[in-house]
Amino acid sequence: MPDSQITIIASDARFKGEMHFEGAARIMGACEGSISTPGTIEIAKGGRCNARVDAQRIMVDGHAEGELIGRERIELLPNAHVRADIAAGNLIVQDGASFVGHCSVGPDAVTKAGTGAQQQRRTAPETPPSRSEPQPEAIETRPVRPASQPAKVEAAAPAQHTPPKADLQSDWMRLAQGATDTQKRTG
Q1: If we measure between CA atoms, which residue out of 17, 68, 31 comes closest to residue 7?
Q2: Could you read off the pLDDT of 48-95 as tens digits, one per residue?
Q3: In the chain, how many domains are there?
Q4: SS3 labels along 107-152
Q5: Of 6, 52, 57, 166, which sees the most CB atoms within 10 A?
Q6: What is the DSSP letter of 45?
Q7: Within its chain, how far is the Cα of 106 from the centroid?
């Protein structure tokens, strides 16, 4: 992280509530609520965050749920598991990351996300959406293999024949009979 000050939330720490950092923060533990900084938030591998995260840059290599607003960019690293609505200036999804939620990318997306969330907090408590309003469906995205890498195709293994149980029992019976015959001859 390029920020000069880094606050680390250790893997054994659990926070619930509203957090604001003046510099960067690396979350290795668990956080719930809202997190904001003019710098970078990193949800490290093993870290869990169920919050509204608003930062200049967000890097996720752990688990994140809620709402992520990356004013400059959001980067989902290979171990990221994200179930959130994302608004980002730029979005980078590395191979191996998983994302389920709504996604808006570009300068307009970040502006709308910031003002919409502020207005929502000033209004009355949340009410469930009416059934007459169409609700957007969540879209699951997966990384796409670059065209320069050919896809590996593996042939299915040929089915192996498993003898019926009756055949297995008769094999055991023949083996037992053979052992008995041998004992009779030697004994």
Answers
A1: 31
A2: 999 999 999 999 999 999 999 999 999 999 999 999 999 999 999 999
A3: 1
A4: HHHHHHHHHHHHHHHHCCCCCCCCCCCCCCCCEEECCCCCCCCCCC
A5: 57
A6: T
A7: 22
Supply 56's token pair: 């200049």
Going by C-alpha positions, the residue among 57, 61, 75 that lies closest to residue 21 is 57
| This model's pTM is above 0.85 | no
**Is residue 96 situated within a structural domain?**
yes
pLDDT digits (tens, 9 = 90+) for 140-187: 555 555 545 454 545 555 555 555 555 555 665 666 777 777 777 776
Q: Is residue 25 part of a domain?
A: yes
Domain range for 82 = 6-125
Q: Which two tokens stand for residue 21?
A: 């950092």
105, part of any domain: yes
- Indicate whether 158 belongs to any domain: no
